[in-house]
TrEMBL record:
Keywords: Cell outer membrane, Membrane, Transmembrane, Transmembrane beta strand, Transport. InterPro entries: OMP_efflux, TolC-like. Its main location: membrane. Belongs to the outer membrane factor (OMF) (TC 1.B.17) family. This is Transporter. It is found in: Cell outer membrane.
Length: 481
């Protein structure tokens, strides 16, 4: 865009068009395209929302909490899994009929000889029935569905939902803190730039004064000490001007780094409202909508869920279960065992070593902690909005009061200048008047900056960031008109 603008200016010089374009391109190359981008405050805020790594990190925290909440919904569903096993037995499971009654207790000597002869011809292996092989392979489909857990599933899901709310409020808090930081850095550029310009005006004025003093000394109208006093004041002003320029450069770098741009030129200036917002409305909005209070409400909900979760350990767990055999060997045991089974199971806790009673007490303490913290936070926020509002009013009163001081300092400088030129006043009086005027301008500029900071704080604390941004846009448009 800068190159197009420069080339557009070259069209106004047809005779030197080629040379002008070459010079424009060379200028861009040698300056490294270091042109400051003009940015209004609303544009800077939108830019910051897009490029802030801090907000992106908080946003990913919200996404993680939502994903965990979605994962918690699966607690209501049954579980289904495939299980397989291979087992190597010491020996196959077998049953010898000779070990069972009545053969085990039979006295062969009491039997007739014919029967004894027949039994003797039967090998012992004929009495053995194998149930399994030595290597056992199994595969089955297993299902389990909890239908009553003493409220633990509902409590866990409630905790996940509260964690989502907590992460969202943390994002809102981070956004407001970033907004206040942007206000500080954005208007710091304008303030330091104005201070540098004010110091430059002081240097120019004192330079002219030192030149006049030198001429008056040459004409014998003033003493040498008067001329030296003017030069010392000039040198001190140059030092202050250098400091002001460095402060402006640092403020501009801080804002540019914050917005992830090479250079930036703010276009929205300082302003003051003619009618201040209502304190009662600000307090009401703060105590009903502040993210810190909602975050503590989420903490309280989590603590309540934790109490219910720990209490659920005292209740039984009822579940449905099922098993379907997918693969088994050809042993007798496998033929006897059914291919599928379903049923209802119940687990009743009697004595455990997980310290349920202590966990319940800890959860109740966490609940009380959240409630007390919330009450204290309400007091702190009420105090914060009151203090910030009064700081805003104090800054406005300072600006209004300094208008008269500014007029007085301006008139005093004019009179001291006339008196010095006529030899009726000393150089010290003239320099003091110049410094007084600069001090009043600086003090009033600082009061305007503090007003913007306090106004931004009351709007951020009460959750009216968008209204503040819209106000800056309106003020910027009015200044442009």
């Amino acid at each position: 865009m800068v190159l197009i603008s420069l080339i557009g200016q070259c069209f106004q010089q047809p005779a030197r068009f080629v040379g002008c374009v070459t010079l424009s391109i060379s200028t861009l190359i040698f300056t490294g395209f270091s042109y400051a981008e003009t940015v209004s405050f609303p544009q800077a805020w939108q830019q910051l929302l897009q490029v802030s790594d801090q907000l992106q990190a908080k946003n990913q925290h919200v996404n993680r909490a939502k994903a965990e909440e979605s994962a918690g919904d699966a607690l209501n569903y049954p579980s289904l899994n495939v299980a397989g096993s291979y087992t190597r037995l010491e020996k196959p499971i077998e049953l010898d009929l000779q070990d069972l009654n009545p053969l085990a207790s039979l006295d062969v000597s009491t039997l007739p000889s014919a029967i004894t002869d027949v039994l003797a011809t039967i090998p012992s292996s004929m009495y053995v029935t194998p149930f399994t092989e030595q290597d056992v392979f199994r595969a089955s489909l297993q299902a389990m569905w909890p239908i009553y857990t003493g409220g633990r599933i509902t409590a866990a899901q409630g905790i996940h939902a509260a964690q989502v709310s907590e992460s969202e409020q943390e994002f809102a808090l981070a956004s407001r803190e970033l907004f206040l930081q942007l206000v500080d850095r954005y208007y710091a550029v304008s303030v330091t730039q104005t201070l540098a310009e004010t110091q430059k005006q002081l240097v120019d004025s004192l330079s002219l004064h030192a030149s006049h003093a030198e001429k008056l000394e040459q004409q014998g109208q003033i003493a040498k000490v008067e001329r030296l006093n003017a030069q010392v004041a000039l040198e001190n002003a140059k030092v202050d001007w250098g400091k002001a320029k460095r402060q402006y450069e640092m403020a501009e770098i801080a804002l540019a780094r914050m917005l992830h741009v090479p250079a930036v030129n703010p276009t929205t200036g300082l302003f003051m409202l003619e009618q201040q917002p209502s304190l009662s409305r600000l307090s009401q909005l703060t105590l009903t909508q502040h993210p810190a209070l909602k975050l503590l409400e989420a903490k309280e909900a989590q603590a309540n869920g934790l109490v219910d979760l720990e209490k659920g350990g005292y209740f039984p767990t009822v579940y449905l279960y099922g098993n379907y055999t997918l693969y088994e060997d050809d042993s007798l045991f496998s033929q006897v065992e059914p291919d599928w089974m379903v049923g209802v199971g119940v687990s009743i806790p009697l004595i455990s070593r997980d310290g349920r009673s202590g966990k319940v007490l800890a959860a109740k303490s966490a609940l009380l902690q959240a409630r007390y913290t919330k009450a204290q936070t309400r007091q702190d926020l009420s105090l914060l909005i009151d203090q910030s509002y009064r700081q805003m009013l104090q800054a406005k009163e300072e600006v209004d009061a300094l208008d008269t001081s500014l007029a007085l300092a301006t008139e005093n400088l004019r009179l001291r200048e006339l008196a010095f030129n006529q030899g009726l006043s000393t150089s010290i009086d003239r320099v003091d008047a110049e410094l007084s005027l600069t001090a009043v301008k600086t003090k009033q500029l600082g009061a305007k900056y503090r007003y913007m900071q306090a106004y931004a704080k009351v709007m951020a604390v009460s959750g009216q960031v968008d209204e503040y941004v819209n106000r800056t846009q309106i003020q910027g448009a009015s200044h442009a008109d």
